[in-house]
Amino acid sequence: MVWNGPSLAVSSARIEAVASAANGGTRTTKQVSVIGLDLAKHSFQIHGAAADGTVAFNRKLRGAEVLRFFEKTPPCLVAKKACGGSHYWAREIMAFGHDMRLIPPFYVKPFVKRRKTDAADAEAISEAASQKTMRFAPVKSAEQQGSAMILKVRALLVRQQTQAINALRAHLSELGLVAAGGMAKVAALIEIVRDVSDNRLPKAARFALSELAAQIEALTRQIGTIEREIVAEAKRDEDMRRLTTIPGAGAITAASVKAFVPDPAGFVSGRRFAAWLGLTPKPRSTGGKERQVGLSKMGNGMLRSLLALGGRSHPAARENQS
User: How confident is the model over 91-119, as pLDDT tens digits?
Assistant: First the structure.
């Protein structure tokens, strides 16, 4: 989720930086106002810039040195790309009093000069964070990340269940055993697989497909357990209860909105929210010619799919289709 963040009026940090000055390279003190942080698995790159844009430092840190560095650094603006692990590091750095900003990688890329390196990425992050019109992503709490993980795990299990069912149907169709579509008909295919008196299945096929049938049933139980927990949480949470009153929105849709849109106040209107979800046309205009090509699909795909399916299930939508 991205929107315009607050003003960049943050306190500057006094950091000793080694500057190669014309008078022989003396040790100087610079007012560092922005630090760009580029994350990796084991090494981290930091780029400090003064208020006038001059470089104060650009150095590499190991993972164990990152928190010690920001603990000793006076509070300032710290920016990094919104990527894997970014919310954890943002929370840890904010605990030291820093103003933390997460920037979508799509907005950082134009600031990378020539070849892509860790140092160039850290510098690009620092420059992007200094832009007054830059859009930032909110820092999520551990609880918000946990809620999103429940939905993502469910989506993974549903994909695995679909793959296993499609594989079962495909293998049985090779032997002339075909069933109608839908989950209800899958149970009939599983009964055929487990019926040892059915001579239409060779012994080797029954052995292999029995494992596939067991996997389908295990995935179905796991999905049911997660969905029951989501429904129970939707009944306990006030925001989710209000969301379920929207026509076509159920507990899973409400949980997805609550998890993936932690601060709806960042959108000034429903149209902005639709544009963030990727439900608006993608403009490709040049030379004064206005052109729009399909939906942008630039937001959260899971949430967009749930809202689209919910809208189609509404009686008014079915009447328009007919």
Answer: 999 999 999 999 999 999 999 988 888 99
pTM listed for this prediction: 0.79
Do 121 and 207 have their domain in common?
no
61 touches 89 (CB < 8 A):
no
Decide: residue 46, CB within 10 A, 0-12 exposed, 13-18 middle, 19+ buried: buried
Nearest residue to 56 (alpha-carbon basis) of 74, 81, 82, 83: 74
Q: Where does a domain end: 220, 241, 262?
A: 262
Count of structural domains, the chain = 2
- Asked if residues 189 and 179 have their Cβ atoms less than 8 Å apart, the reply is yes
132 within a domain of the structure (yes/no): yes
Residues 6+ apart with CB under 8 A from 84: none
Instruction: Give the DSSP per-residue string, 176-201.
Output: T----SSHHHHHHHHHHHH-TT-TTS
Which H or E element spans position 27?
strand 27-38
